[in-house]
């Protein structure tokens, strides 16, 4: 009874995502709501979405960042971007969202900031597959590489939570 999804979020779930054979990539609604509440709590103005799938959590974050806020979304499949964009427009948040259609490692390498408020990244545990990614599992390999990069980045404090498929909270260090 604690979930209160915004109307376009429910539409993404029912209209597009549940029909898709890759629906396991959808962020858990409890995880999305936790991220929205954390973003509100800290007044987040920038978020990074790694693998936006059909756009549920990208839209979720765009709905809670301020009007001047920015959601950077990394996605490699233009089919999912095409599914998501009408929902972004319907919700009136398309100007807050920048989609990079390429591997997340490339996008992250080009970003020049680490968010002053914390940054959240869902799906970082990927059902445990990131522990020992198969040679042909590029998604798990990319998440493993990202997790290792975050772990060694001395500019941030880091927490990985086992909510949904994993959630990373990275906070810029000021010391």
Automatic annotation (TrEMBL):
It comes from the Eukaryota. Keywords: Methyltransferase, S-adenosyl-L-methionine, Transferase. One of its GO terms (molecular function) is O-methyltransferase activity. The keyword S-adenosyl-L-methionine applies. GO terms for biological process: methylation. PROSITE patterns: SAM_OMT_I. The keyword Translocase does not apply. Belongs to the class I-like SAM-binding methyltransferase superfamily. Cation-dependent O-methyltransferase family. This is Catechol-O-methyltransferase domain containing 1. It comes from Oncorhynchus tshawytscha (Chinook salmon).
């Amino acid at each position: 009874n604690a979930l209160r999804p915004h109307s376009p979020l429910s539409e993404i779930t029912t209209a597009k995502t549940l029909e898709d054979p890759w629906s396991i990539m959808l962020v858990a609604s409890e995880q999305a709501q936790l991220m929205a509440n954390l973003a509100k709590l800290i007044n987040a103005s920038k978020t990074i979405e790694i693998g936006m799938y059909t756009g549920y959590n990208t839209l979720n974050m765009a709905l809670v960042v301020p009007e001047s806020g920015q959601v950077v979304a990394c996605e490699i499949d233009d089919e999912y971007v095409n599914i998501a964009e009408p929902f972004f427009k319907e919700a009136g948040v398309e100007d807050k969202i920048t989609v990079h259609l390429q591997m997340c490692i490339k996008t992250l390498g080009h970003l020049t900031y680490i968010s002053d408020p914390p940054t959240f990244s869902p799906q970082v545990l990927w059902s445990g597959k990131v522990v020992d990614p198969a040679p042909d599992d590029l998604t798990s390999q990319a998440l493993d590489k990202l997790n290792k990069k975050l772990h060694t980045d001395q500019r941030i404090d880091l927490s990985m939570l086992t909510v949904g498929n994993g959630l990373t909270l990275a906070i810029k260090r000021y010391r």
